[in-house]
Amino acid sequence: MNEPRPEQPDGAGLLEAMRRRRVTREFLDEPVSTADLETVIRAARWASSAGNRRIHRFLVIRSLETIQRLKPFAPGILGNPPALIVVSTDITRAQAEHVQLDRDMNSWIDVGTALMSMMLACEALGLGSCPATSFSQAAVSRALALPESLVPELILQIGYPTSRGPRRGSGVTRPTAAELTDWEEAVGQREPAADDADAPALS
Ligand SMILES: Cc1cc2nc3c(=O)[nH]c(=O)nc-3n(C[C@H](O)[C@H](O)[C@H](O)COP(=O)(O)O)c2cc1C
Could you tell me the pTM of the whole model? Predict the structure, then answer.
């Protein structure tokens, strides 16, 4: 017999936050508090990591002057976010963990798991966020005076969203879950076996 499921008091809230989150590219000038940024970083720390190797580091940037200095090298930053978190691979740590970065896809996946956790944490805090991978790694490293051991992989823009209209370019068109899914071990089988008459159809 199956174990009874543990209580999930906030499960519905988490699913709703996943549904609601959309990238924010236009931000209010309002600064983001240290406490909120710490919560966002903690969410990254809680994210799943291949082999639990933890080879990424997080640099918080709140100086508007620094952000403006980065923008020419980061076309992926379209607006004026009041805070950035730069996610970098720590090469020294990767070597210590025997990670072969040139052939290890897991290290990028780890950036993705941290990213998604951070974006959901932002959503939970009422903050908007938008990743940027469109930037020159060399120029950003130079502008931030990063040590050679750190390679910037992704910049997460964070701030309070403007209330103006729908969030720009927020991926409103996307395939439905049904379009993305095959069932019962058979590519081409577009419907699940009926085991629950009340289950809503995937949209
Ligand atoms: C790995 C990754 C890199 C991205 N890079 C950029 C970027 O450089 N600039 C940008 O404006 N958006 C960037 N995005 C945001 C995507 O364009 C956005 O997630 C997509 O349009 C879907 O919108 P949604 O997240 O609101 O559903 C990136 C997203 C991911 C996951």
Answer: 0.91
Domain spans of the chain, in order of start: 23-162
Q: Whose CA is nearest to atom 29 of ligand 1?
A: 131
Answer whether 9 contacts ligand 1 (Cβ < 6 A).
Answer: no
Which of 24, 133, 167 has most ligand 1 atoms within 8 Å of CB, for mutation? 133
Q: Give the architecture (CATH level 2) of 23-162.
A: 3-Layer(aba) Sandwich (3.40)
Structure tokens at 83: 């805070």
Instruction: Indicate if ligand 1 lies below 6 Å from the C-beta of 92.
Output: no
Chain center to CA of 14: 15
- 100-146 pLDDT, tens digit per residue, is 999 999 999 999 999 999 999 999 999 999 999 999 999 999 999 99
Residue whose tokens read 């991978």: 133
- More confidently predicted of 82 and 202: 82
Residue nearest to atom 23 of ligand 1 (CA): 171
Who contacts 85 (Cβ-Cβ below 8 Å, separation ≥6)?
37, 40, 41, 44, 58, 59, 60, 61, 118, 155, 156, 158
CA–centroid distance, residue 131 to ligand 1 (Å):
6
For 59, the 3-state DSSP assignment is strand
